[in-house]
Amino acid sequence: MSDPSPDNLQLTGTGRLRNFIGIEGLPRHILEEILDTAASFVDVGDRAIKKVPLLRGKTVFNLFFEPSTRTRTTFELAAKRLSADVLNMDIARSSTSKGESLMDMLRNLEAMSADMFIVRHGDSGAADYIARHATPDVAIINAGDGRHAHPTQAMLDMYTIRHYKGGFAGLKVAIIGDILHSRVARSQIRALTLLGAEEVRVVAPRTLLPADIESMGAIVCTRLEDGLRDADVVIALRLQKERMDSALLPSESEFFRLYGLTSERLLATHPDAIVMHPGPINRGVEIASEVADGERSVILHQVTFGIAVRMAVMSMCMSGRETERDDSQTQGRSNATTR
Ligand code: CP
Known about the structure:
Distance between the termini: 43 Å
Structural class: alpha/beta
Oligomer: single chain
Strand content: 5-15%
Helix content: 25-40%
Bound molecules: phosphoric acid mono(formamide)ester
Shape: globular
CATH architecture of the largest domain: 3-Layer(aba) Sandwich
């Protein structure tokens, strides 16, 4: 796959969202627009008829080449709440198992008048690659690519933080665990920095930190007590054993002894600190059950907010594209009359 570099693939000529590949390259006001738009959708889930018509007549394909519980189902629910037709491709049972290439599969879905591909893939840069090679008529949303980015997860995390903390100014956020393999951490750090958090701390042993972490604006803490001190928001991350190809840790129990989030350790944080986790959780590895299920945990609220945030991203991409089409038709008519 090509090196991920989303730049203006994500924005129309007038600066509106058209694809959502990563946080990098986006201006702060787009992130704020996603949060504000999501706020307008949150109550749709409480209505008797949980639907708005914004994507009526649109066709959305969920293309998950890696397993998922939360992201796939909340994208499906989000699309359905926007009144789109949604198809969940069963990749393992698709003709990719007979040797069909990714691009040939996409060409066939494009021929079915697809409007949007939601893509999760194990390769960093997969969503970027598809956005560059698929027909420009289809919106591409990254649902997690390798270690690179998981931008809708980061935005639902930002929504949750803003909901509980009122904003980002003055906030100290500690992200704890397997930063090295985490696309979520990369997207969170970029979003928190752009939205104005005071401190973004990453807390992990050196073996689980990427080499470029400080250049992203994060403060590195290799001792958990340093990372937790006075933190307003604590985000635990899963140890991604499936992406570890060498012995980066002595053992899971040793990791929990040094970095596991327990009630006792949370005493070092701000008294109103919230605890987050993108899921899936490894109980007793990065977080104790008493914390995951405790009164400071907002983990399940993150999942609920994820539906509204994904509705926001999908509807913004579609309306950005509609405006782009209208603008180009107006430009075409104006060129024709001045000829
Ligand atoms: N947070 C997250 O991406 O979870 P899933 O892998 O279950 O989608």
